[in-house]
Amino acid sequence: MKRYTALVACLCLVLQPVMALAETEPAPITGADTRLYLADGSLVEGNLIERDQDLVIMRVNDKIFTFDKTEIDKIITLESLVGGA
Fold first, then answer.
1. CA-to-CA distance for 71 and 36, rounded, in angstroms?
2. Domains present along the chain, CATH in parentheses
3. 46-79, pLDDT tens digit by residue?
4. What is the pTM of this model?
5. Which CA distances in Å does 40 have to 10, 43, 77?
6. Residues 6+ apart with CB under 8 A from 77
């Protein structure tokens, strides 16, 4: 019985870091063509509707959102990924 308890304890200690590494980003939204990395650390995925010098408009889950350029750290689009490949 002591061996069984020791084995279970060892397995728990070994698997704990593995489970922490298994945490990943949320699943991407199907059909999303743009990712916005916001200054507050948030990630927004959706379809880019319009982008000008001081405003970005996106559709996320059939809702329209506007973002000021000061809120955005980085914009990643499918075109930018293809161009960088």
1. 10
2. 26-84 (2.30.30.100)
3. 999 999 999 999 999 889 999 999 999 999 988 7
4. 0.58
5. 39, 9, 20
6. 33, 34, 35, 48
